[in-house]
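pinging the channel bc i need a second pair of eyes. not urgent but kinda urgent?? the chain im working w is below, pasted from the shared doc
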Amino acid sequence: MAESVNRPYKEDQSTVSETPRGSFRDPDAERPVPVRRIMYRRPPSERGVDYTTFKAAFASAVEELKQEIREQHEQTRAQIQTVRRDVLDAIKASPAEYVKLACEFVALFLVFSLAVRFILKIELVNTVFALFLLTALAVYWAMARWKQESDERNHRKSRT
């Protein structure tokens, strides 16, 4: 009885041992297929491409990418410089505008951190502090806006 239970296992084991190491058995194939042939690609020289031609093509592609990256970098730097100048000019023209921008930025961050706190249960900023700071920023923003409108009214009165 013990032989009948182990017999199918021994038969399966003999089929596995017939397969050479480093290959697998394809049921439709007549002989085992080596694993290396499937897993690795042939080098360019075996595919009919000369290695020096391949290397030159690859080097030219890399140079094109480098040139494109340099151009993109210069373009981005120019855009950043333009925006930076615009922001600095706005700040110099009106300090109230700077206070408004700062209040809006910090308020945006605090609202984001509160959203993360209530949605994901991750506390980036203490909730009580964030609510207090939002209130203080609203007051500062209102004062800056009031100052800006007051300056504009005074400027219009002085022109007329």
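so The chain is about 80% helix and 0% strand. and The two ends are 116 Å apart (CA to CA). — does that match what u expected or am i reading it wrong
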